[in-house]
Design brief:
With 299 residues, the chain is of the alpha/beta class. It is built from 11 helices and 10 strands.
Length: 299
């Protein structure tokens, strides 16, 4: 049930915070930190560091609002908003609710007809897109991939034919596995950019094919990571050779599909007869049997 029309309520302010360089803080951020009745922060220690850097003091109450207490604390904050409070939500870096806490609070505030506004600020998604050198006219943000290999492969398979540029966040210790999985699903030559430590002292953008980047990342990469991947090329049936057909079938099988269903799906996507895809799979299997260990065939 929405809030009663005509009753004065507070305002929820979503504020972007620097993703690296403190000088990128939005000019309004300092004023909002000083004016808020409640500041809900993903990490209150990080908030103290931010206010010190900006030279401001919060006069309102500071509460923690992170993944672990988001569900429990949301009703409390909504109650304060209904009572007329100005609540400022900040996360450790970037815009709240973009792969960060915030969505639940925004949805609950909207349900109560509470005003929600924003202090626009830095975004790792848009910064990485702009620096990637890849097409940015159309893109998808996919957030973090699943940690488990099978689930990760399945999620990647869902967007294997997506033509828009793809943007992902990833933890540095999983980057090599993620890039290897992307090379397997999207193809080793698909262009990508790994953006590391954006706006910080050791900012780095590594560009290349997914296979090349996976090899580079195998030695270990540190810092905050955003990965930008080129969308799938527009291809017609004549452009898909047998190796590509076999690769697509293998990707689907590894994600849990039975071979028969995988062949049918690949044939439908490519606009080819199922028999043509089946023949390619059989030929690859026979070639693998004759040359053990080449890793390209299907068992």
């Amino acid at each position: 049930m929405g809030h009663v029309t005509g009753t004065v309520t507070g305002t929820l302010v979503l504020a972007g915070t620097p993703i690296g360089d403190i000088a990128d803080a939005p000019p309004r951020l300092a004023a909002e930190l000083q004016a808020a009745d409640i500041v809900a922060a993903e990490d209150t220690r990080r908030l103290r560091g931010l206010t010190r850097a900006l030279g401001v003091h919060t006069s309102g109450r500071v509460v923690s609002y992170f993944e672990g207490n988001e569900s429990a604390r949301t009703p409390e904050l909504v109650e304060a908003l209904v009572g007329g409070a100005r609540v400022l939500l900040v996360t450790d870096a970037g815009m709240p609710s973009v792969s960060d806490p915030g969505y639940r609070l925004v949805a609950a505030a909207v349900e109560q007809d509470i005003k929600v506004t924003a202090v626009p600020g830095p975004s790792a998604v848009l910064t990485a897109l702009a620096l990637s050198g890849l097409p940015v006219d159309r893109f998808c943000f996919e957030g973090f991939l699943p940690r488990k290999a099978g689930e990760r492969l399945g999620r990647l398979r869902e967007v294997a034919d997506e033509r828009r540029t793809l943007v992902y966040f990833e933890a540095p210790h999983r980057l090599d596995d993620t890039l290897a999985a992307m090379a397997e699903v999207f193809g080793a030559d698909r262009r990508a950019a790994v953006c590391r430590e954006l706006t910080k002292t050791y900012e780095e953008v590594k560009r290349g094919g997914l296979g090349e980047l996976a090899t580079w990342a195998a030695d270990g990469v540190r810092g905050e990571i955003t990965v930008v991947v080129e969308g799938a090329p527009e291809t017609g049936p004549a452009e898909l050779d047998a190796d590509e057909l076999v690769r697509r079938v293998r990707v689907r099988e590894e994600a849990g599909e039975r071979r028969k269903e995988a062949i049918a799906a690949v044939a439908a996507d490519a606009g080819l007869p199922k028999r043509e895809v089946f023949d390619a799979v059989v030929a690859a299997k026979n070639a693998a049997a004759q040359s053990p260990g080449n890793g390209k065939g299907l068992s």
